[in-house]
Amino acid sequence: MPGSEHQPRLPAILTVDDDPAVSRAVARDLRRHYGERYRIIRAESGADAVEALKELKLRGDTVAVLVADYRMPQMSGIEFLEQAMEFFPLARRVLLTAYADTHAAIDAINVVDLDHYLLKPWDPPEEKLYPVIDGLLEEWRAVGDRGMPYTKVIGHRYNDRSWEVRQFLARNEYSFRSVNADEPKGRQLLEAAGLDDSQLPVVITEKGEKLVAPTDGELATLLGLSTSPSLEMYDLAVIGGGPAGLAAAVYGASEGLKTVLIEKSSTGGQAGRSSKIENYLGFPFGISGAELTTSARRQAEKFGAEVITTQEAGRLKTGGVGAAHSIVLNDDTTIGARAVILATGVDYRQLRITGCWDDPDDPACNYIGRGVYYGASVSDNSECAGEDVYIVGGANSAGQAAMFMSQTAKTVTMLIRGPSLEAGMSQYLVDRVKRTENIIVRTCTEVIDTVADGDRLTSLVLSDRQTGETETVSCDRMCCFIGATPRTDWLEEAGIARDDHDFILSGPDVSKVSGWMLDRPPHHLETSVPGVFVAGDVRSDSAKRVAAAVGEGSMAVMLVHRYLAET
Ligand SMILES: Cc1cc2nc3c(=O)[nH]c(=O)nc-3n(C[C@H](O)[C@H](O)[C@H](O)COP(=O)(O)OP(=O)(O)OC[C@H]3O[C@@H](n4cnc5c(N)ncnc54)[C@H](O)[C@@H]3O)c2cc1C
């Protein structure tokens, strides 16, 4: 086997490049950083590399990452990666390209489901190579590291708490295996741990530690996350750890504010649920929501922000102009802050049918972002040109999405559980929807199942709620708008002004409602309470996009500075 050393059971990182100097350089850099934990195998042709993979397969070894040069004479990097997928489909795939070949790398996303392309030269590796490979290894360990010890979560398939425990770990990118208690392996593990299935869910860590029916707080501790604030007083308290809150924490802390972020569950928010965010700037290959937001949490912590998870802000007591605000947490801890940013987002419900939700028991079967979309349609309607689109829901957001997409889609079918559109949608929109030729409205209809080709949604199974008849229809894209509720009920006491749907008003909109007491107008993202700002989806009239939430979170910090300078 070219360039390999015999270190049984270590997973492999395989690199192939026809230029011996480049091949040696990649292997050298990889070995320097990963040599103790991975076998670095190098080959100088696609054919040699395929042979090496066959040998690894025969020995029962695992391959974590494949790094292939794009331009190789007999077998291109893409052809090699395509063949490699037959042997090690879970290995992460990286294409090594020259700047001029970037377009080919981007095309390769569709052919070999490429995870990353690396531009040559990759110097310094600390900046350009290792962060990429680290991220890929982390992803690979989460699903494809069969040869190493791993944490097990034993639970019942359809048990809420088992589901929540798995969700919590997954959203924090903690790698684990899910074991069902009613399967032989689950029973064996429970017996070995001296437990029974009345104590589920049970987490057994790599080191053999047992967590019986753990709370979120206990899980957070297992993951090394903070669950209680260290100070009584901060410059800035950010409530909510989705993209808006994380951005606020990064900018607040990096700009010298003593910053605390309070998140009731795990950081990531709705974005953390997205299997692939494809429209976030700077990620041409898309990025998983968990990866994006876990990196953001680390970045905030790096700058000194305290990120507190599993603590819900239950009350906000405002202190008057210039005075500190108090936030009471669910364990009755009270913290003070000179300024507050509310970034509590909204809740979109997910359809609990095949591939349409983040099923921890079957993470591979997830079409979210691959034909199934929540709370948003398309950012540019050319994306759905010629498609048969289905929209689930009958509120204004669904109507607006239908109108927008009907401009380019072949057909847009709205699926409404109730008997009429009028029940949930403004009349002007109902009229427009009805006037649009390629929008079809199906009332008393719900989606009960999906059909996919690989991991891409292709059809829906619909059921007529009146007759019970079912029908399978071909579908390119299903956008669900089945409820987005702002999380603002806890702000009652603070008197934060909200719109008719409970989203938080800010800036110029605040001036329109009574209660603004200062001579100056409210700052752009300032709520009706001076010094309390809002960012992201929870803001009235927000864009409901990751980039918008991140932008608002960052901008709110600038306005916090302005407010603090005035007081
Ligand atoms: C499945 C899915 C896919 C999506 N895909 C895309 C996409 O591809 N591109 C895109 O641009 N947008 C996408 N979106 C929309 C995007 O995720 C949201 O616009 C974005 O997450 C909003 O960020 P946020 O920080 O405002 O709120 P959220 O992400 O909702 O985060 C709010 C956070 O606040 C916490 N919280 C709430 N109340 C409290 C409290 N009282 N105390 C403490 N914490 C609290 C919540 O637990 C949550 O973590 C998607 C949404 C979903 C659901």
Please tell me about this protein's structure.
The protein has 567 residues and is α/β, with parallel strands linked by helices. The protein has 4 domains: 9-143, Response regulator (Rossmann fold, 3-Layer(aba) Sandwich), CATH 3.40.50.2300; 152-222, Glutaredoxin (3-Layer(aba) Sandwich), CATH 3.40.30.10; 233-347 and 486-566, FAD/NAD(P)-binding domain (3-Layer(bba) Sandwich), CATH 3.50.50; 372-482, 3-Layer(bba) Sandwich (FAD/NAD(P)-binding domain), CATH 3.50.50. The protein is built from 15 helices and 26 strands. The strands form 6 sheets. Strands 10, 11, 12, 13, 14, 15 and 26 form a 7-stranded mixed sheet that branches. Strand 8 (202-204) and strand 9 form a beta hairpin. The longest helix has 21 residues, at 546-566. It is globular and about 75 Å long. Bound molecules: flavin-adenine dinucleotide (FAD). Residues 239-245, 262-265, 269-271, 273-274, 277-279, 312-313, 343-346, 348, 368, 374-376, 487, 490, 536-538, 544-547, 549 line the site of flavin-adenine dinucleotide (FAD). Residues 239-245, 262-265, 269-271, 273-274, 277-279, 312-313, 343-346, 348, 368, 374-376, 487, 490, 536-538, 544-547, 549 line the site of flavin-adenine dinucleotide.
